[in-house]
Amino acid sequence: MAHWEKQLHSDLIFHGRIFDVVVDDVEIENGNHAKREVIYHNGGVAVLAITDQEELYLVKQFRYPLLKEIYELPAGKREKEEDPRICGIRELKEEIGMEADHFEYLGKMYSSPGCFSETVYLYLATGLHTTGQALDEDEFLDVKKVSLKEAVDMIANDEIVDAKSQIAILKYLALKKSQQ
Fold first, then answer.
1. What residues form DSSP beta bridges with 119?
2. Please, are residues 76 and 87 in contact by the beta-carbon 8 Å criterion?
3. What are the pLDDT tens digits along the chain (180 aa)?
4. Residues recognised as catalytic
5. Closest CA to 149 of 47, 52, 48, 55
6. For 16, 40, 97, 143, which has the most beta carbons within 10 A of its beta carbon?
7. DSSP string of 73-125?
8. What's the pTM value of the predicted model, to 2 decimals?
């Protein structure tokens, strides 16, 4: 059975540079009405940049909503209608100063589908070449190279708590294992 909800009315509560917030009145499948609070976001990209020696690049940056620094894969937000692959190639160069010979789609994830429209596209970058960082003027981060095993340990020990990074690293590991 297919489940559904039908939008009856939508109120824009906030229009921002990164996202919009709306409150919708919806009809649900039993005929009742409900409210849905939704954050519409253009989405983003995360890139697992890994060397031939199975070392990967992390960035450590301050995340204001958390009021602390965290480790993440190189990542960034998409511009409206931007091809996720192009976004990923740009973010790889900007954040860690690398270009890749091979840029492979790993899949996508929904960060919090109960209230966010955000889709994050995951990519694997191999055959890496240094080009030099090109950070945005309001972007400050440190780059760290770790082994794949160390990255998995960092996930297990809550040192990498960012969902997109965890998913990309563990998905890569699962795909690699299934190909053996």
1. 110
2. yes
3. 899 999 999 999 999 988 999 999 999 999 999 999 999 999 999 999 999 999 999 999 999 999 999 999 999 999 988 999 999 999 999 999 999 999 999 999 999 999 999 999 999 999 999 998 877 788 789 999 999 999 999 999 999 999 999 999 999 999 999 988
4. 137
5. 55
6. 97
7. -SEEEPPTT--HHHHHHHHHHHHH-EEEEEEEEEEEEES-TTTB--EEEEEEE
8. 0.93
Contact yes or no for 162/87 (Cβ under 8 A): no
**The pair of three-digit structure tokens given for residue 153, joined into one six-digit string:** 């340990």
And the tokens for 48? 């697992």
Query: Pairing relation of β-strands 141-147 and 98-110?
Result: unpaired
Q: Which of 68, 70, 125 is nearest to 102 (CA)?
A: 125
Query: Which token pair is 59?
Result: 């960035």
Distance (Å, whole) CA 172 – CA 105? 11
Q: Where are the alpha helices (DSSP H) in the chain?
A: 84-96, 148-156, 163-178
CA-CA distance, 98 to 85, in Å (whole number)? Answer: 15
